Amino acid sequence: MTDGCLHCGKPLGNRTALCFACESDGIAVEDVVNVDEGVYDRLEQYFVLASTRCSNCGDLHGVVTVDGETYTAADFGIETEAEWRRQMDEAEAWIDEHREAVEPALRLLERDWPRSVEAVRSHVL
Questions:
Q1: DSSP string over 26-84
Q2: Rounded distance between C-alpha atoms, residue 121 and residue 125, angstroms
Q3: Does the pLDDT value for residue 2 go beyond 60?
Q4: Which residues contact 76 (CB under 8 A, 6 or more apart)?
Q5: Nearest-10 Cα torsion for 100, 104, 110, 115
Q6: Considering the chain, what is the average pLDDT of its residues?
Q7: How many CB atoms sit inside 10 A of residue 81's CB?
Q8: Residue 32 near residue 39 (C-beta atoms within 8 A)
Q9: How many CB atoms lie within 10 A of CB 24?
Q10: Model confidence pLDDT, tens digit, residues 54-108
Q11: Which H or E element spans position 20?
Q12: Residue 62 burial by CB count (10 A; 0-12/13-18/19+): exposed, middle or buried?
């Protein structure tokens, strides 16, 4: 994460990418952060996969809807907890290996996936 606004450098307060003034001026994170589309897509797929496991009971029965598309664990070829864990471990290893490319993408994704982004920052990176 950065210490200042990505656009003007001012302190962020409790924000993570743009200061209040820049956001109020209509500046979007996408305008100031260069993100590899493949990295963005891979992170979003990781978030969808993570969300297919119920956070309450731990079972693989979650249905996730993103941009009107509905996903389940079966869409990723996952039928067991062990398969889900293996894919999660592989994705987290990739995220850890590509930290520099991942952080800008997280800034774009945190608007739609705030809890998932925080989990990546605190548990993976």
A1: T--HHHH----HHHHHHHHHHHHHHHTS-TTT--S---EEETTEEE-GGGGT--SHHHH
A2: 5
A3: no
A4: 49, 52, 87
A5: 10
A6: 89
A7: 13
A8: no
A9: 9
A10: 888 888 877 888 889 999 999 999 999 999 999 999 999 999 999 989 988 998 8
A11: helix 20-24
A12: middle
Residue 92, classified by CB atoms within 10 Å of its CB into exposed (0-12), middle (13-18) or buried (19+), is middle
**Residue 75 burial by Cβ neighbours in a 10 Å radius (0-12, 13-18, 19+):** middle
Dist. CA 106–CA 35, nearest whole Å: 9
CA proximity to 108, closest of 45, 37, 29, 7: 29
pLDDT(51) > 80: yes
124: part of which helix (H) or strand (E)? none
Cα–chain-centroid distance for residue 30? 15
